[in-house]
Structure prediction request, 144 residues.
Amino acid sequence: MATRRKSTAKVTPFRPPSGSFIKPDTKFRLSQERHTLSRGLETVGVIFACLFLSAGALLGLFRLARYQKVQLDRLAEINREVAVMEAQVELQRNRFAQSFSTGDTQVNLLRRQGFIQPNEVPIKLVERDEQSFPSNVTARTPDR
Prediction:
């Protein structure tokens, strides 16, 4: 008769004779931990990507703010130049209108510009015609 050898390990359907078998609940738990770890790493990656994009957007905003300030300064300078030119155009328009107006206004303009001094008397040249000078008042030329 054969003697039966007694084994120290209990053989069940869930545990093979070798001790390398992992319990089903442990296997599920390890799978769940791997899944959680991968989701966590994915979340960290997404956060870093968002931070990188946000930093790039902020840098772009700072550059645009500096560019806007430069452009506003240029616009203010151009507006000042336009105002000066409009004042000069208005002054020239008034001078042009006064230069073709009546004689009194023209004399006043010449006085303001300094061409006629206040103590000077203007000389008017008048054409000699028969109606303005009677014949007896005209100057005679000396006889030779």
Summary: The two ends are 190 Å apart (CA to CA). The CA atoms of residues 14 and 23 lie 8 Å apart. Residues 25-113 form one domain.
